[in-house]
Amino acid sequence: MAQTVGTQKAKPSTVRRPYGGVSPVPRKPATRDLETVVQPSGPTPAAAAFPGFTYHGGPVVKFPQLYASFWGSSWLQGATNLNRAARLTQFLTDIVASKYMNILSQYGAGSGAGTGCFLRSSFVQNLPNSLSGTDLRNTIQECINARVLPEPNANTCLVIYLADELAVNDPQDGIEMCEPTNDNAFGFHTFFTTTAGNPFFFAVIPGLTNGCLTVSCPGNDGGCSLHLAETQEQRQTQVTSHEFAEMITDPELNAWWDANSGEIGDVCNGESAAITVGPNTWTVQREYSKTDDQNSNGATFCVVEEPNPLPKLVPGPASSISAVARIQQLQAIAKFLPLPPIYFDAAQKTSRTDEKDFQQFAENIFRPFHHSDFLADVPGFLRQFADVLEKTPKR
Q1: Is the pTM of this model over 0.85?
Q2: DSSP assignment letter at 258
């Protein structure tokens, strides 16, 4: 089991241990311990296929700030795994820029395409091959302590990709993924409270190898929410889209859900589709759209994208900064993202970065120029800039 640094430990939950997962069975919910903060109100057309899908008062992630973390030593072994990690980070970069986000705007999660960003990836090594929920939470806390991950704000979202040799076996949380027997999920999202007292939203995506699918859906590929004919990348991006959509519309399992059908991804679980962003085409899962459900009298409710952001549903979470202002802010920093990856040894509790990654980062920023074309002493400027940042209070 992963050990914590010093005396800091992830706070155990004594009341709620909620999660939302991806069931191997199509259109089957996989949620536990959903909570109602505010009783749903307002009329819903009875003709809608899912009139019980409503807002329950909890927070949503309004401007997703995404991080990816690749757990397991094999991610750094060989070009194939490194390329798969790079592709998955590109997928996270693309999904927040895509029209897929226009579905989620109706729930107050983002304001449509471009109102989110992917910031950084990390690689975590020397973990046990079978992880419990406590292992997951403690390792995330250790990453925060080591500054591999930031202390979260209300928009921080982490997607953990497990190497093929890692599995989850957590009887307390009721989740088994990619174990030799008894698998019951293809991924899940949940949250915990950090030692600093902030909720940290995260999703876990296992390797989803052929072996994972065979154990989860023995002899029934046709009745499975993933399929052996799909590539490993297609399975992982499909499950990621399911968990990402749920993580930002229902991060604490008390915002948008239906008592019978689960969260936004559960309603359409297993319905794959494709999105294209620039030169990349990705396999994703269709998501439930309450707006389409109501407008079509229940005829259409699982969609893959919308041409424009859907207006916010009422009742729903309160608004904050305007969508236009947020897009302008994100465009201003987009050239500097993603940041260079960082590497963490979970056994030694040490982190490092590679000079070659920073060199590539610098070249990407200044290309086609050299940094000296702008400033005579860029290193000195950056040292002064870092000193100022250390003194700048958090707002």
Answers
A1: yes
A2: B
